[in-house]
Write a structure and sequence with these properties.
The chain is built from 19 helices and 26 strands. With about 775 residues, the chain is α+β, with helices and mostly antiparallel strands.
Length: about 775
């Protein structure tokens, strides 16, 4: 056997190396545990796996229902900007003009079609704000508590509704301890304080019975070897939902069926709590005594309150690219035929949305009349044209475990390049006449012999903007149940919300929330972007902050967000707007009242983008008169104009919507009236200087639409609500109206009302015969 003997120095080096490997391995493992999915994917609903992450999100990114949520809330996102460059050789040109460029250079024109190039955008790092946070508190991966109880219930919907008590991650509360009593009173949450105990018991029974089908068999709490409940952080045996199968508490509603009377029911309930009960003699079973049974640990009753009241599963959403625009970075370039094909949207795993939706149902039952609807129509936020994000709320949230968007980008670019002229000698008609000058010379088609070996190249640059759209589960219903709907918790305390600037709450702001995402992809030029989610900012302002302000003593409350009725995000709070009620069949009947509405239009236009930029209010007469001449409601046209481009406020769009990112599409072009054709989109510089003015083209194209839609889908005369047809066609090009397309028209109707006051909304943009 061969052996080798290491010196002391060599042994020290080996030991040091091993130590470094162990340390870095530990750090890497710790980092992976903190930031990787817990438990690691994918854990099917019928399975369990340790460690579970947190009792409010035990199985990250492992939803029982893997299909995307039906009827998600739609909202636009920020722009992703990619750089691209095109290199061409002179002999590939369509045509050249000798001396046609600067300083006598040859100018050649090219038409270049970008072959489809695959783009992959990694959206990892996206968080879901405001809904909940299980990452900055004690969980299976960290003992660091970065949020106190006040922050939890004030900043996050899930913590507010659930309360901070009854969580497996924390010590058991002692009702003889003054601090613990204060926590029970102040931080248990509205469901535990307001919802009847029997209804809470039934909700937890439903959670137990739904395990394996609707929810994972998650850990509820832990017990020691004697079956006594202890903190899970101290070890012990995990007790899962399945441990309660066959050990559920009796229900009071079973009296008369399973139990003869309340006495018999209450005896059964005490026995379920682990007590030993015996009948008093000579009382005929009407009286009994109960005592603690030392041989039957009562963890089933002690931990029953730790069973979730609602499902803690993730639900599935998506992010996809909805519009693509290539921005020329070379003077005189024209981009057309932009497409992003074969797209695979990025999957998002939303925590807390199912849970919050269920809990708000329970909260509404504490005050809502029986059998009355929990929501109005879905208040979807439209995606057509300009998505005017003028207000936003955010805070640290839970990881969405966002995937990757993939697709193939292509476009056509028309441009010119200037080249140093080659030697051109002798006039010619045919190539043969040029052979005298050398074998590389030929007749260039412009009557001169040209050296074909002189074939210089030219490189031009473009920027490609990809606009995002998020699909978020349950947010429409959550917004309705908590704030905007007629049966919402907020409206219970603030029933009178009118579009009157003098009212304490003139209207509700439908404010989105956002998360910043790190972008990773080849040639990406924006390292960060924002992804937006509808309604959550409004829930934050009115449900989390507003309700608490209403119930606090005077002088201690924070002011409730107050909005001007002219704010584009203003919602009346009356649920959805009726777009199919009484309407005006003669939409041009107001054409003679142009001056009556001018001042209101100008006021709205100046405030539309929070005072940024300069809207083209000088075009009011043109829009009004042209609409009237074409039989289209002029106020309807102006409402569309305001909505789609802030009345062509180009600098304002760049400043407000692009957030100073001059590479964004918002800083270079917009479709003034939302007509989806980039060839007639107005092009401009970031400061609003117009490069190619297509406002009139957009107006004319828009005014053609009402007539063009007649005859499609059977024609509007065959619809009980013709304006629904217009919305379906205008927003999505479909024949079936959706909550989103109706929501878009509802928004236009509100703008119409701000301009025209009590004037009836048209039945259709034009008169229908």
């Amino acid at each position: 056997m061969l052996t080798s003997k290491l010196s002391k120095t060599e042994k020290f080096i080996v030991s040091l190396f091993s130590f470094v490997v162990l340390v870095f391995g530990y750090l890497f493992l710790s980092y992976s545990l903190i930031f990787a999915q817990v438990p690691k994917p994918y854990v099917p609903c019928g399975k369990t796996k340790d460690p579970e992450f947190h009792s409010l999100r035990p199985y990250q990114a492992s939803p029982c229902d893997e299909s995307p949520a039906a009827n998600p809330a739609l909202f636009c996102g920020g722009d992703l900007v990619f750089s691209d460059s095109i290199t061409v050789n002179k002999n590939e040109s369509d045509s050249c003009v000798d001396g046609g460029g600067e300083n006598g250079k040859d100018q050649c024109r090219f038409t270049f079609t970008r072959p489809p190039v695959e783009i992959a955008v990694d959206l990892s790092g996206a968080e879901f704000p405001i809904a909940g946070n299980t990452q900055l508190v004690v969980n299976s991966q960290s003992d660091d508590e970065k949020l106190n109880d006040t922050q939890k219930v004030s900043e996050y919907i899930s913590w507010y509704l659930n309360g901070t008590t009854g969580r497996a991650e924390y010590p058991f509360l002692d009702i003889e301890n003054e601090d613990d009593i204060s926590k029970i009173v102040n931080y248990s949450g509205p469901i535990k304080r307001l919802f009847p105990q029997q209804e809470q018991i039934k909700a937890r029974i439903k959670t137990v019975e739904g395990r394996g089908k609707d929810t994972h068999d998650q850990i509820v709490g832990c017990t020691n070897v004697l079956g006594v409940p202890i903190e899970c952080s101290k070890g012990g045996k995990p007790r899962r939902l399945s441990d309660w199968a066959g050990n559920l508490p009796p229900l009071e509603e079973e009296i008369g069926d399973k139990y003869e009377d309340f006495t018999e029911y209450w005896k059964a309930y005490q026995e379920w709590r682990g007590k030993f009960c015996f009948d008093m003699p000579f009382t005929g079973g009407k009286y009994y005594l109960c005592g603690q049974n030392p041989f039957k640990p009562d963890y089933h009753s002690s931990l029953f309150g730790y069973i979730p009241l609602a499902l803690t599963e993730d639900s599935v959403g998506e992010v996809e690219i909805i519009t693509t625009t290539a921005q020329p970075r070379t003077e005189g370039m024209v981009i057309s035929n932009v497409s992003f094909d074969n797209q695979s949207p990025a999957e998002l795993f939303f925590p807390h949305t199912i849970e919050i939706n269920d809990l708000t149902d329970m909260l509404q039952k504490t005050f809502k009349p029986k059998d009355s609807p929990a929501t109005g129509d879905s208040a979807s936020v439209d995606l057509a044209g300009n998505c005017s994000i003028t207000n936003v709320r955010t805070n640290p949230g839970d990881d969405l475990f966002a995937g990757e968007i993939k697709g193939e980008l292509s476009y056509t670019a028309d441009f010119t390049c200037d080249f140093e002229p080659p030697d051109k000698v002798g006039s010619c008609i045919t190539d043969a006449e040029c052979s005298f000058w050398g074998s590389s010379y030929s007749c260039n088609g412009r009557g001169r012999c040209e050296d074909q070996d002189h074939n210089p190249s030219c490189t031009v640059d473009t920027a490609v903007s990809l606009s995002l759209k998020s699909k978020s589960p349950s947010l429409d219903d959550i917004w309705q149940k908590t704030v905007a709907g007629p049966a919402s918790a907020f409206r219970r305390l603030a029933p009178q919300i009118n579009l009157d600037p003098d009212d304490p709450i003139a209207c509700l702001l439908d404010i989105p929330s956002s998360t910043e995402i790190e972008l990773e992809g080849e040639n990406v030029t924006t390292s960060k972007a924002e992804l937006f989610f509808p309604h959550l900012g409004g829930v934050y302002d009115y449900f989390l902050k507003g309700i608490q302000s209403m119930i606090q003593p005077k002088g201690f409350a924070n002011p409730i967000t107050k909005a001007d009725p002219g704010d584009p995000l203003c919602k009346s709070g009356e649920g959805s707007v009726d777009i199919c009620g009484a309407c005006n069949p003669e939409p041009v009947s107001v054409c003679g009242d142009k001056e009556l509405y001018r001042a209101k239009f100008e006021d709205l236009a100046q405030r539309w983008l929070a005072g940024y930029g300069s809207p083209r209010v000088d075009m009011y007469d043109t829009v009004w008169d042209t609409s009237c001449s074409r039989g289209v409601s002029p106020v309807f046209s102006i409402a569309i104009w305001l909505h789609e481009s802030g009345a062509s406020n180009y600098a304002g769009i760049c400043q407000k919507l692009a957030g100073g990112n001059t590479a964004s599409e918002w800083c270079h072009q917009v479709q003034d009236f939302g007509f989806n054709n980039n060839d007639i989109a107005t092009k401009y510089e970031p400061d609003g200087t117009i490069i190619a003015d297509h406002l009139i083209d957009q107006l004319n194209a828009f005014l053609n639409l009402p007539g063009a839609y007649i005859g499609k889908c059977g024609g509007p005369e065959n619809f009980s609500c013709p304006m629904e047809l217009f919305g379906a066609q205008y927003v999505y090009g479909e024949c079936v109206a959706t909550s989103s397309s109706n929501g878009y028209i509802a928004g236009i109707k509100k703008i119409f009302g701000w301009i025209a006051g009590g004037e009836q909304f048209p039945c259709y943009p034009t008169a229908i015969q």
